Amino acid sequence: MVLQVCxxxxxxxxxxxSDGDLMTTHIxxxxxxxxxxxxSTSATTIALGMTALLQxxxxxxxxxLLIDTDSQGHATLVTTGRNDYGTDDSLYAVLMADxxxxxxxxxxCIKVSEWNDNLHVLPASPLLEQxxxxxxxxxxxPYRLSDPLxxxxxxxxxVVIDTRPSFSLMTEMALVAVTDAIVPVEPxxxxxxxxxxxxxxxxxxxxxxxxxxxxxxxxLVTKLDRRVKGHHLMLNELKAHPILGKxxxxxxxxxxxxxxxxxxxxxxxxxxQIWDSNxxxxxxxxxxxxxxxxxxxxxxxxxxxxxxxxxRTLIF
Length: 316
Hints:
Elements: E1 7-9, E2 12-16, E3 22-30, H1 39-56, E4 64-68, H2 74-80, H3 91-96, H4 99-109, E5 111-112, E6 119-122, H5 128-135, H6 146-152, E7 158-162, H7 169-177, E8 180-185, H8 189-192, H9 195-208, E9 215-224, H10 229-240, H11 244-247, E10 248-253, H12 256-259, H13 268-275, H14 279-285, H15 302-313
Parallel strand pairs: 3-7, 3-8, 4-6, 4-7, 8-9, 9-10
Antiparallel strand pairs: 1-2, 2-3, 5-6
């Protein structure tokens, strides 16, 4: 049985298994109560990027697990090519299983991504909304994901969780399971003014369920249109804010190629290679997706960023 988190250091959590062996697992959640801010694109691209680096460096653990907790299943669709998972082959099966069987159900439901054999996916299902209704008021419901995940997390180098655009029970389950919450946000007035509310809600979940190691690790600004003056004004205000400015981890510029990447179930990188002649410039524009681990110069290449991230945060 995996014990609860015992030691936490910036962006990684160390756990002890039943034999007393130290394990290292990274568990991130991309979350915001607002839809359309780039949560799924960020989650899937971060997970794929981690996988690519682990293979590049011949790491001992090369697999990354992506968990989709959004009933819309966007992350599931683009990484597996399907979004019609149901009662026996999705996160729904894990959440509705008896506690003694939940870990095995989780293992059975994990799929191999079409993008990379080492990128594994626990798919969402439209039935997650039904599961949420059925589990409301059930004792220990927020731990329905974290308990079985804790028992298999050591088999992966990292876990990335995509959440739904609300602070529902499903999102609460995701946040109870992670160590780091990353908040993607567009540079628009009504979205930026609500950031403190988002952060406070995450902290409420942390304190309410006594998840000592859950922290808001940063804010990721997405879809910045350099032609829009208002975007620059909002970004500057965010940087100057005494609390939010310290949490700013990166800026993702608007990119039409990236916006349409998932239409063909391609990753952002694949689409840039196919559609964009200025590949290096646009790849570097995605670097902010991975800067939530280390604040490195924006101009450095993706591979350099990945290497720096995992030299600091992974134990091979």
